[in-house]
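Model the whole thing, not chain by chain.
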Amino acid sequence: MRLTRASGLGLGVAMLWFSLLVLIPLAAVVATAAAGGWDGFWQAVTNEQTAAAIRLTVGTALLVTVVNVVMGTLIAWVLVRDRFPGQRALEVLIDVPFALPTIVAGLVLLSLYGPDSPLGVDIANTRAAVFLAFLFVTLPFVVRTVQPVLAELDREVEEAAASLGASRLTTFRRIILPALAPAIAAGAALSFARGVSEYGSLVLLSGNLPRRTEVTSVRILSSIENDNLDNAAAVATVLLAVSFAVIVALDVIQRRVGRRG
Amino acid sequence: MASRRPRTRGRGRWVARAVVTAYLVLLVAWPLWLVAQHTFDGGLENLRGILDDPDVAHALRLTVGVAIVSVVLNTVFGVGISLLIVRYRFPGRRLLNALLDVPLSVSPIVVGLALVLVYGGRSGWFGPGLEDAGLQVIFATPGIVLATTFVALPLVIREVVPVLEEIGTEQEQAAQSLGATAGQTFRRITLPAIKWGVTYGVVLSLARSLGEFGAVKVVSGNVLGQTRTATLVVEEKYLNFDQGGAYATAFLLALVAVACIVVVSIIRPKEEPR
């Protein structure tokens, strides 16, 4: 449908609100970073402590994404293809990290993997804690993107492959994996973006030790608290670039699969 | 070979079940259970302690109030923009569709910074002007509302858009050809069709809004009894060695979050036999 007068007005109001809330503020981050010139930007980003934080954040997020691709696909598989008592409870557990406040997530993880751990595993204030926190908050993404695709997959094709003598591994590699690949990729992109931008769950868990467990978001926050907004904006622009790259990647994936218009 | 296959499949299935269950128990269920356990370590004392604390009570009221305002804003905006994106064709539609997902992948700290740069009272783009007009945004409640609304913005849209795409336009066109106005068509045809999608979106937005931490921390100023929200109380209590208070507040927040998830998982299957 073409826009009518009423819907055009609605679009205008919606765009005004969206601009005031999201677009103009995000543009202000990039504009503030740009106002310092390339040298200022480069200096802020390559500052030893900041660079270490960016390396830790991106490296850990990549590692977590790899784990999520494997575990997320396996979890989705078990939830779709298997039936056993207690499955509904597992379904609920998957979504918990999405709804749980991040600061609570940090406290929750600290109770099992902190100083008072009943397991005797104390990883508080180490890099393993950063990994664990990322793993927790990114849990739902691959599972929830793969699950619906797996549920709609035609099992007759698999049975045909098997009846033609294909082994289970070949069926998985040649039939199932290609069908799931776009969903896995989309889930991986989302979980990477979520990991890179994580803050709240690390506050109590990782100790934010400079050059060891300090992530990029924490660096930006300390710049804000020191009233160095230019520096904060420069580092924030790096994170925004990562988010934007993920959005573009998702759009390309979705267009190839042709799901959302 | 053929006779062995069912057995390996059976064994593989059990291994997969065990691995998945152990992973989810170690990562989510057990830690969550421990927080509940810590909360009730000394009976109801921890919970009573925070509920009797006027500052915590204020923080809880502020959190709920802000969450309600932001859910209403995001529901109205979300349903409206979903209708526009699915039903109408206009230049920039695809770009807008992609941009609407941006808040999901932006770091909460960057959200806070972005809002400070525009609405900050001292050096923001619009902040000084707004303050002259008597409206303080940053370090005040409006800033908390903006931050909370920002982070939860895409949730309603992501639930409503697929439903709108699936139901198509035939019924709406039929209603219109029979003389229904746009308002009647929306109320009688479109709204009943998307009501479950809207409901999940609202529940998810509510959970997200109650729990926002990083963005609120930057824009709120964290003033005791004024702009301190529930999630900020958890941090404050824990860092001040009041672990009982921190666990009790975290328990309340976790309880609401899990309740939201359970509600969604209960109503979701009802939609399938459409």
